[in-house]
């Protein structure tokens, strides 16, 4: 589904990602783990076209993405749920969902998808006409995921979906991630600091440290790795 080769990304003269390579099989959940400053969010922004890359290649379903703008990448099926959610606070929940479908044209299908998302996130149904700025953190994360799903993505990028959420809401969000993968076959790349939760739902994972991938493998194997336990799972 996604192939990344020798990706170099930075800001000005500062290089943040130093030639990283990884692959995401179709239908898989792949976790990217690392501490603050490891380069996780920079990676997600580079994949989605929000910042340029200095060198390397990104392919989605064998199609090169490097020269495509963010909107074109969205049309090709790559959608990002950004860190911090970045909702349109002055718009209602419904309007935010409609913004997620701006690349689409069929009103009937758009309305059907809104109903599908409200079924998956019933709390949003009761808040449909509320402004996004008034939502709780958990409601906002549900809306951010729902907005991304409105574009009909082939690949969903989730940047720190547990950030700032209460533990019980984190459980709910990760249940939804599992359901989207299991029930809809959605391919997901999950960037997380919460290694416990990420490895619990992921099939494979990569450890990002100071802009380089230092370890990768099946999630169950990494969960049992003593170094991973010590550095990212509290011993």
UniProtKB/TrEMBL annotation:
Chain ranges of the ABC transporter domain: 2-235
Top-rank lineage group of the source organism: Bacteria
Cross-referenced InterPro entries: AAA+_ATPase, ABC_transporter-like_ATP-bd, BCAA_Transport_ATP-bd_LivF, P-loop_NTPase
Keyword Transferase: no
Coiled-coil annotated residue ranges, if any: none
TM regions (residue ranges): none
Alphabetic keyword roster: Amino-acid transport, ATP-binding, Nucleotide-binding, Transport
Keyword Transport: yes
GO MF: ATP binding; ATP hydrolysis activity; branched-chain amino acid transmembrane transporter activity
Gene Ontology annotations of biological process type: L-amino acid transport
Gene3D superfamilies in UniProt: P-loop containing nucleotide triphosphate hydrolases
PANTHER family, per database record: HIGH-AFFINITY BRANCHED-CHAIN AMINO ACID TRANSPORT ATP-BINDING PROTEIN LIVF (PTHR43820)
Similarity comment: Belongs to the ABC transporter superfamily.
Protein name: ABC transporter ATP-binding protein
Species for this entry: Dictyobacter alpinus
């Amino acid at each position: 589904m996604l192939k990344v080769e020798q990706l170099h990304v930075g800001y000005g003269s500062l290089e943040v990602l130093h030639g990283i390579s990884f692959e995401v099989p179709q239908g898989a959940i792949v976790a990217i783990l690392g501490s603050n400053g490891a380069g996780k969010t920079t990676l997600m922004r580079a994949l989605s076209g929000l910042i340029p890359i200095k060198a390397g290649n990104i392919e989605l379903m064998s199609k090169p993405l490097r020269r495509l703008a963010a909107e074109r990448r969205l049309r090709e099926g790559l959608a990002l749920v950004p860190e911090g959610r970045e909702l349109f606070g002055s718009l209602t929940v419904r309007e935010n969902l409609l913004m997620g479908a701006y690349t689409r044209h069929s009103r009937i299908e758009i309305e059907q998808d809104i109903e599908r998302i409200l079924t998956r996130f019933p709390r949003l149904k009761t808040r449909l006409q509320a402004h996004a700025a008034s939502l709780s953190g958990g409601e906002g994360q549900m809306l951010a995921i729902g907005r991304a799903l409105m574009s009909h993505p082939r690949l969903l990028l989730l940047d720190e979906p547990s950030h700032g959420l209460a533990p019980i809401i984190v459980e709910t969000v990760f249940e939804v991630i599992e359901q989207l993968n299991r029930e809809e076959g959605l391919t997901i790349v999950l960037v997380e600091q919460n290694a416990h939760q990420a490895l619990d739902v992921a099939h494979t994972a990569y450890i990002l440290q100071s802009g380089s991938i230092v370890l990768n493998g099946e999630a169950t194997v990494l969960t049992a790795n003593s170094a991973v336990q010590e550095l990212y799972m509290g011993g």
